[in-house]
């Protein structure tokens, strides 16, 4: 019984430590909305598949605090994004900016769909011009 109580105590004591800071960062609803938008668009550099909004890693908590500080200092969203990209690289953003380097990333899906559509059109057009096997058999039987 003593072991169960000890285990329950440690589980209750540890749970606040691993919790994500879900409290409001700002009293102003406009600043809070900007903060929520920014932290949902920044990738956790350790988890890599989560935004820093959803991650409970210490690095994500530090990035949330840094974004909160920058917003408090009056920085605009593009300035904050530039700061993060300068410090951590383009990988920190879920949606990379459209630059010369990322142009291939933005255009590749459209080009692949276009190429697939053209290839499908050519194959179908070629198959439509081919005679059916039944027609060829009927022509030979008629001779």
Radius of gyration: 29 Å
Described by the principal axes of the CA atoms, the overall outline is elongated
Spans where pLDDT lies below 50 across 5 or more residues: 15-19
- How many domain regions? 2
CATH topology of the largest domain: Helicase, Ruva Protein, domain 3
End-to-end separation in angstroms reads 98 Å
Given helix and strand content, the structural type is mainly alpha
Number of helical stretches of at least 4 residues: 6
**In percent, how much strand structure appears in the residues?**
under 5%
What CATH architecture of the largest domain do you see? Orthogonal Bundle
Report the CATH C-level class of the largest domain. Answer: Mainly Alpha
Count of extended strands: 0
Mean pLDDT: 83
Within CATH, the superfamily of the largest domain carries the name Cytochrome C biogenesis protein
Helix-residue proportion: 55-70%
| SSE arrangement, N to C | HHHHHH
Characterize the biggest β-sheet.
none
Describe this protein's structure.
66% of the residues lie in helices and 0% in strands. The chain has 2 domains: 96 residues, Helicase, Ruva Protein, domain 3 (Orthogonal Bundle), CATH 1.10.8.640; 46 residues. It is mainly α and 143 residues long. The relative contact order is 0.07. The longest helix has 27 residues.
